[in-house]
Amino acid sequence: MKVSVDTEINSPKDKVWDVITDFENSPNVISGIIGLQVLEKPASGLVGFKWKETRKMFGKEAEETMWITDCEEGQYYATRAENHGAIYRSMLFVEAMDAHNTKLTMSFEGDSDSMFVKIISAVMGLFMKKSMTKMLQDDLDDIKLYVEAGS
């Protein structure tokens, strides 16, 4: 399953980047995140940064351990998470539209190394894709509100 959403934010690119890379503050930015615990912090850069995120999903709390696998400072970062045979990859990308506006794009890809998870994903695919698209769009809307309120 692959999903991609974007939004335009009325703020310079560097301010958007600062907000999306301030992981410890994300429970104050994104309403779906109810807790975050930093597990590993690299000496420099973002690659290797690892955290446990608690979200409210489908009326229940869910925890995921995620880490940054790739980053181009001020451009994008990519994350990975693994849970019960499922592998999740996401990417946040910032693009200056002009000096005062930024396009923020979030992509998500999920697959599995487990046949059981692959079968469940095939059966639930459409529902899961709609739910994931809504969750990602809600996250971007929250980021947009936070950044624009502080600009």
TrEMBL record:
Pfam families: Polyketide_cyc2
CDD domains: SRPBCC
Gene3D superfamilies in the record: 3.30.530.20
Protein's recorded name: SRPBCC family protein
